[in-house]
Design a protein that fits this description.
alpha/beta, TIM Barrel, 8-stranded parallel beta sheet, two-stranded antiparallel ribbon, 11 helices
Length: 334
């Protein structure tokens, strides 16, 4: 397994991690036994980085991970470096979500996460979404105090702009920024990839296989109907779904010619966008995780990279990556 550095002064972690939002019903029902089997497969593959959040299943993802870690506590060595997040709060009566980056809220939510995970410290703690009412410098100072207290080893931000990263890093080193990044979502190429590389910040890429579109089994209308999120996502609704399935066939054809899973090719492409990029694909299928991990062993030649760019040029995807409601929170910078 390739290893990559988690921040300018951070430890080495596996070149890909596991995104544990998939351990909840976000994309459809899932059993805890399947999640634990996936974590077992992650250990077999040499994956050491695990990413979750307090809002994934309203704590359920963290509980599932905590139960799995119970197998290893007596041995004194845990198999994963855990990242979790806080900062998103639900609106009243299921209204629009809101954000709270205040120091008391972040620490209270972190304490709940630590209890669910059964840990005294997490490796990485993210602010899940920016609170526009609090300056990022102030939030950074709050996070630095959590480091001093020993509750977190380092911290990061999710879905922020390059300018915000620079402001935060001027106060304290920022270990990671998490953003959607894949062959179908290239926004980070417009400043975030470059800023992370300059500052030594890891760019943790979620949805690296395009929410399943860049795999051998892309979403169908039937599977989308089981996910409230995808059912409202412009890339997976109406005629855009079929357009995007047809467009992404080009990657499946290249993968077939190479004798590789399409997901592995998508991961390999992403890893070659910079040595600070760490994809965190989400799955609750052990075999799919093995396909994803296979991408860390692929060394794509310049000819293959050029062919991928020719068939899937920047901007090939139909529809926005988020609906209007889903786009509440990420910072817009281009």
């Amino acid at each position: 397994m390739q290893m990559r550095k988690l921040g300018p002064d951070g430890p080495e972690v596996s070149a890909i991690g596991v995104g544990a939002m998939s351990f909840t019903a976000f994309y459809g029902d899932v059993a805890e036994t399947d999640c634990h089997a996936t974590l077992d497969a992650a250990i077999e593959c040499g994956i050491t980085h695990l990413d979750t959040s307090n809002v994934y299943g309203m704590g359920r993802s963290e509980e599932i991970i905590g139960a799995h870690l119970d197998r290893y506590r007596a041995k004194g060595a845990l198999p994963f470096r855990i990242a979790t997040k806080a900062g998103i709060v639900r609106g009243r009566d299921s209204g629009p979500r809101k954000f709270d980056n205040s120091a008391p809220h972040l620490e209270q939510e972190l304490d709940k996460s630590l209890k669910r995970l059964g840990l005294e410290q997490v490796e990485l703690f993210y602010v899940h979404r920016r609170d526009p009412d609090i300056e990022i410098e102030d939030v950074t100072e709050s996070l630095a105090r959590l480091v001093q207290k020993g509750k977190i080893a380092r911290f990061g931000f999710s879905e922020i702009a390059p300018t915000s990263l620079r402001r935060a890093a001027a106060v304290h080193p920022v270990a990671a920024v998490q953003s959607e990044y894949s062959l179908q979502t290239r926004l980070p190429d417009l400043g975030l990839v470059q800023t992370c590389a300059e500052l030594g910040t890891a760019l943790v890429a979620f949805s690296p296989v395009g929410r399943g579109l860049l795999t051998d089994r892309p979403p169908t209308p039937e599977s989308i109907a089981r996910s409230a999120f995808l059912s409202d996502n412009p890339r997976f609704t109406g005629k855009n779904l079929m357009r995007n399935r047809r467009a992404s066939d080009a990657l499946r054809e290249i993968a077939t010619d190479m004798g590789q899973p399409t997901a592995a090719l998508a991961i390999a492409w992403l890893l070659q966008q910079g040595d600070r990029v760490i994809p965190i694909p989400g799955t609750h299928s052990p075999q799919h995780l093995r396909d994803l991990a296979a991408g860390t062993a692929l060394d794509l030649t310049p000819d293959i990279l050029a062919e991928i760019d020719r068939r899937l040029p920047v901007g090939w995807a139909h529809g926005d990556r988020y609906s209007v409601a889903q786009n509440n929170g990420p910072e817009k910078y281009c």
